[in-house]
Amino acid sequence: MTLSVYLSGEIHTNWREEIMEGCRAAGLDVAFTGPVTDHAASDDCGVAIMGAEADKFWHDHKSAKLNAIRTRKGLADADIVVVRFGEKYKQWNAAFDAGQAAALGRSLIVMHCLEHQHALKEVDAAALAVVETAQQVVQCLTYVQRGTLPSTE
Known about the structure:
It contains six helices and five strands; from the N terminus they run βαβααβαβαβα. It has a five-stranded parallel beta sheet, sandwiched between helices. 50% of the residues lie in helices and 16% in strands. The longest helix is centred in the middle third of the chain and has 22 residues, at 56-77. The protein is of the alpha/beta class and 153 residues long. The protein has a domain at 3-35 and 75-146: Response regulator (Rossmann fold, 3-Layer(aba) Sandwich).
């Protein structure tokens, strides 16, 4: 069975690549989607396509709505949504994506460091798995797809 996995969350580290490479190395049948991770493109897509705005609120509003088209489609089509909360920035959009995924009934894996455990307790409560590393995500996906546990070697 091919799993469709949407990778949401912070864009400042290579966690997405680690998960994708880990799944390739494990020979998993997984199709990945996600948001636009080019920060400048994501921030400016609305005005680049629909025209400039003098007010930063409307500049951001246009881009947020355009990005939401991609996000809604990705979340709706996903079997599993992985949401990563990074350590440096507050990812309000990631929390919103996690809430949407839960509302859509998507299986949710949340990834964050221990220091964010208290702040994300409600998000964690909606998740079916809470992990700290990309390798743990790969192990979760391996178990879901194959029903096998990680090697103890």
